[in-house]
């Protein structure tokens, strides 16, 4: 049996490095694209919301498979974990290929349908068709990263992120400025750089995946299929897909609201996304590591330890995100000045930095507890909560205040904050009740419920 380390520290620090490098990739994109124009920045930010929405189609499989892999390995069912990863990869490749064809064929109509401002459509067609065409690679990366990470090997995806960032930044610089003998392609070059870096990252992850389990994966395993295991993936995965889909689709709808407010508001939201990502990186890595640990412990039958681990991850994460929020509040204006000198955009962002102090602790609460519920298979509950809260509060209420009453981007942020705390509190009540353990038929339940386990 492979020696797998599931300690919170061993899992979280490589995830943090990987996420930090992904943040640098996004920040480098934003910084370099801002050299082209603020319109180009708005197109990139808007397009990524579209891509995030479409990735839900294959994260349904990837996320469900990842949790099941950790559970099966916790229960010492290595062959089942191996089979689940192969089945998930085959399925997501087919879905990713279909999405790629759609975005290559219809970039303009899709951008228009999503209320992209008219003056941004020419840039959007170029960027969406090129980057969207590589969604099959995004599907491969998502599935393999989830599979490899849930075996306890969080370093592999980290190394991949390092290589991907180096290549992407190098090619970005070359295509934007015409350096290293590369053509000066502007935004089209940034898109091409994304495709090349994804291709190389996918190749590296495939290599790691072949050796991720005790018995090596061979090309002949592509024929492997199990209806019962696929049903298990879907049982956990489809509510997870709806849960993730609620978030990305609601964010996409919110971006259409912001787009209707003007290009300056859209660019401001994109710049704030970059700052918020930095603020939440360590907290997010702790939440993901906690999910892997909880799934592994639950699969091994250690229900009480899994319960306590969620709180351990939550309190550590809260300390980190609160500290980071204050850093962003103090120095955010100076950081934004690196990206744009537009006084209107800077003024909009300055008004949102204080609200970020409230937003981040709510996100940490919601992320850690909801992910812990997902880790033990209680995915339908988080799906129901996300559906009601995201669409009822984050979308409907924000539309009423931001568009109908005219309070703009500030109202949208306030509604986002309310949504995070509402979901986090409801999920905490569910976690504390231990109903998730009863539904799963756990053999190890605390004698006096959640309060006793917390003590």
From TrEMBL:
The protein's location, in the record's own words, is: Cell membrane
Q: Which GO terms describe its cellular component?
A: plasma membrane
Q: Which GO terms describe its molecular function?
A: antiporter activity; xenobiotic transmembrane transporter activity
Q: Name one Pfam family in it.
A: MatE
- State which residue ranges cross the membrane: 7-28, 48-70, 91-114, 126-147, 159-180, 186-213, 233-258, 278-301, 313-332, 344-360, 381-401, 407-429
Name the membrane topology term: Multi-pass membrane protein
Keywords attached to this Swiss-Prot or TrEMBL record, sorted alphabetically, are: Cell membrane, Membrane, Transmembrane, Transmembrane helix, Transport
Query: Which NCBIfam families does this one have?
Result: matE
- What name has this protein been given in UniProt? MATE family efflux transporter
Q: Which organism is it from?
A: Paenibacillus albicereus
């Amino acid at each position: 049996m492979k020696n797998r380390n599931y300690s919170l520290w061993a899992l979280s620090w490589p995830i943090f490095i990987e996420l930090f490098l992904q943040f640098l990739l996004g920040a480098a994109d934003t910084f370099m694209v801002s050299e082209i124009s603020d319109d180009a920045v708005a197109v990139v930010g808007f397009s990524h919301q579209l891509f995030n929405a479409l990735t839900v189609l294959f994260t349904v499989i990837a996320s469900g498979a990842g949790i099941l892999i950790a559970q099966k390995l916790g229960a010492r069912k290595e062959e089942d974990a191996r089979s689940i990863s192969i089945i998930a990869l085959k399925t997501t490749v087919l879905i990713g290929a279909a999405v790629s064809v759609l975005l290559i064929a219809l970039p303009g109509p899709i951008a228009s349908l999503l209320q992209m401002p008219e003056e941004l459509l020419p840039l959007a067609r170029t960027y969406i068709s090129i980057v969207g065409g590589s969604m099959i690679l995004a599907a491969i990366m998502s599935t393999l990263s989830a599979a490899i990470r849930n075996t306890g090997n969080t370093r592999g995806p980290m190394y991949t992120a390092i290589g991907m960032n180096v290549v992407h930044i190098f090619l970005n610089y070359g295509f934007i400025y015409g350096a290293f003998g590369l053509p000066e392609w502007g935004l089209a070059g940034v898109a091409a750089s994304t495709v090349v870096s994804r291709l190389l990252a996918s190749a590296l992850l495939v290599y790691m995946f072949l050796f991720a389990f005790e018995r090596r994966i061979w090309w002949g395993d592509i024929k492997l299929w199990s209806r019962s295991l696929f049903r298990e993936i879907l049982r956990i995965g489809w509510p997870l897909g709806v849960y993730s889909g609620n978030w990305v689709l609601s964010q996409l709808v919110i971006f259409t609201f912001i787009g209707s407010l003007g290009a300056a508001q859209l660019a401001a939201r994109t710049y704030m996304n970059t700052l918020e990502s930095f603020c939440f990186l360590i907290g997010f890595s702790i939440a993901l590591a906690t999910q892997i640990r909880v799934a592994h412990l639950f699969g091994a039958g250690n229900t009480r330890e899994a319960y306590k681990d969620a709180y351990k991850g939550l309190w550590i994460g809260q300390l980190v995100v609160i500290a980071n929020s204050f850093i962003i509040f103090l120095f955010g204006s100076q950081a934004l000045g690196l990206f744009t000198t537009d006084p209107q955009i800077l003024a909009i962002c300055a008004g949102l930095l204080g609200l970020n102090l409230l937003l981040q602790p709510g996100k940490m609460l919601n992320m850690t507890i909801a992910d812990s519920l997902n880790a033990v298979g209680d995915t339908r509950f988080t799906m129901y909560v996300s559906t009601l809260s995201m669409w009822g509060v984050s979308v409907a209420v924000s539309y009423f205040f931001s568009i109908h009453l005219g309070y703009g981007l500030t109202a949208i942020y306030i509604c986002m904050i309310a949504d995070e705390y509402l979901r986090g509190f409801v999920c905490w009540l569910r976690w504390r009740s231990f109903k998730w353990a009863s539904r799963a038929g756990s053999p190890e339940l605390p004698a006096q419920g959640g309060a006793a386990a917390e003590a």
